[in-house]
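cache lookup: miss for this entity combination. No prior model stored, computing from scratch. Input as submitted by user K.M.:
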Amino acid sequence: MRKLFTWGRRSAIERGEMSKLKSSSSELDLDRPNIEDYLPSGSIQEPHGKLCLRDLLDISPTLTEAAGAIVDDSFTRCFKSIPPEPWNWNIYLFPLWCMGVLVRYLVLFPLRVIVLTVGWIIFLSCYIPVHFLLKGHDKLRKKLERCLVELICSFFVASWTGVVKYHGPRPSIRPKQVFVANHTSMIDFIILEQMTAFAVIMQKHPGWVGLLQSTILESVGSIWFNRSEAKDREIVARRLREHIEGADNNPLLIFPEGTCVNNHYTVMFKKGAFELGCTVCPVAIKYNKVFVDAFWNSRKQSFTMHLLQLMTSWAVVCDVWYLEPQNLKPGETPIEFAERVRDIISVRAGLKKVPWDGYLKYSRPSPKHRERKQQGFAESVLRRLEEI
Amino acid sequence: MGNASSTLTQYDIEEVQRHCNNLFSQQEIVSLYQRFCQLDRNAKGFISADEFLSVPEFAMNPLSQRLLKMVDGLNFKDFVAFLSAFSAKASLAQKVEVIFKVYDSDCNGKVTFNDMIQVLQDLAGSFMSDQQREEVLGQVLHEAGYTKESVLLLDDFIKVFDHANLKMEVEVPVD
């Protein structure tokens, strides 16, 4: 019995060491606040009294949690494309709808393709000369390229009949600041870019998108990362820091969720943007689903299909709020800062918060969560064994 | 009804309801079907282990591997039948049966000391040594009148959980 008692004390010391590790380590797993604080837990009431066979055999709390996760879970909900309510069909509405489809596909779509093509012609005929001929005059070249990128983004937005309402003061180009926004689709970037030429940090994509990334976006000063590489994080963190130090660089736009979410929820923000020691300016984006669902479900469609879907709908209507810049409060950790900014953005855009890391779309949760549960169980059993 | 197409007919719903002994309402069965189709990504008619594990809350659960053995590859009818033990209307005996099946991993109707040690291992992980597990289990078994060599059957489990207030309910979201 005494042996068990000394083990119990040792675990408390180990727990203390683990919490010390939390704040200093840059490991991916220790990146977030305790999930148990958010998840509904039926077995919070710690059972007391002497341990009997029934208590040991009773796995019902754990089983219930597992069955609950099978039936419904907040993570999958974030990435569900929620279809809009179907209309109440009747004999009058159906022909109207058919006419709408014809107008969208046969009138609007060709017009939009023409607008986009004209835009690209103008853009390329200005961009290529500027890029090659002004090689020596960097400042002027940068300024012109900035304007041209804003121009082509405006053409893109026009090609979906984008109706964007910007609220709040326009971002000013100052050093030592980053912009963070919630992420629904790659068009978030285009919508924000048409107003201000941001530098962006993105995942490198294949195909024509990748080509655009490596040519045009390079000129606004973009940073590329690769989700699947573990060492990548340090390299990216260093490049982020370098970018912010430069007074001449375009303001950096970061999507801390790391993945596209369906514009009803926000997943946890990665703390990378919040530990750079600079001002964070939150931007909230909310799309109006009545016109089109702008969520890019990358598991279900390619970006080209997504763009085509946007170009054959009536309009893309959204609100963009530029919110008050935030700084790290004294005594606040980067994770708490990230959560605070996520709260500000979620409240403004009317999104619900969930405690999951967006990257769980691509990988399994780390064993640390399970270990925490196991530790809680083991300690509870051993403690009750000591009670007489 | 084996393949997960997007519509359920009234006949299908009633058949599933019969199969689970009316423990779920028709609305709940429709919701469960939507969930089933959501998890079963390529409309195969069953949910693979990988697809279950893509739900992080499930993957984090210490008993996920044991449950996976029980739910992997089930078609929709059996899926609902499995979950029916977690319905609010399920009887204590049904809930105890699910618990028994989780322990009885070789499905021979008997739960040995070793089976119980293994479940304890899943639940406590590396935070309890082998010796501690055996000591704890041995002690509570002894107090309940069993020994380390005892083999427990379903009836023994029902006796252990007699009059217990087992909270084992899941709510099916009905929009």
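stored under new cache key. The radius of gyration of chain A is 25 Å.
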